[in-house]
Amino acid sequence: MTDNELMEEVRNGRVEKLAVLFERHHVRLFNFLLRLTGNRNMSEDLVQEVFCRILKYRATYRGTSKFSLWMYQIARNTHIDYLRKKKDELPLDEQWDEAISREPTPSESVEQAHDIALVQEALSRLPLKKREILILSRFQNLKYREIAELLDCHIGTVKAHVHRAIKDLRKIYMDLSGEAV
Questions:
Q1: How far does Cα 42 stand from its chain's mean position?
Q2: pTM, two decimal places
Q3: Which domains, ranges and CATH numbers included, belong to the chain?
């Protein structure tokens, strides 16, 4: 069954079908949220919250677009709600203080591990909206059309935002690496 067909089953009361959707999407969703938050535990909690909301709001699912877009919209809203709750505790862009572990695996070269760490650090320094659009386009492999639908804007706007985010990411990366732009 397709994701949309499964979600229609969930919407119609066969909530056990949500387990199949969870198995198909929880890793991608976790990676999306981990790249947004930089915090493994928070990302795991947010994945659970996203699937709880999918179950809670299943009656609102229309199936007019891909299930994954609907799921990412719920994930974005869940992340924003979490940030609003934590607003008094942590400024929005300081949530990266508890950063992703950057320990290289034994098979990685030192140079490659260093480059990966620099890219992660540069990504963490981008404003949330730019970081989010890069994660959706480059790490989650969503098409610009899908991102435009998710963000409720034109494809040209998405292309422009991605271009600016990459440009800013490149500058931050070069500053961190000590290379001239």
A1: 13
A2: 0.66
A3: 1-97 (1.10.1740.10), 107-181 (1.10.10.10)
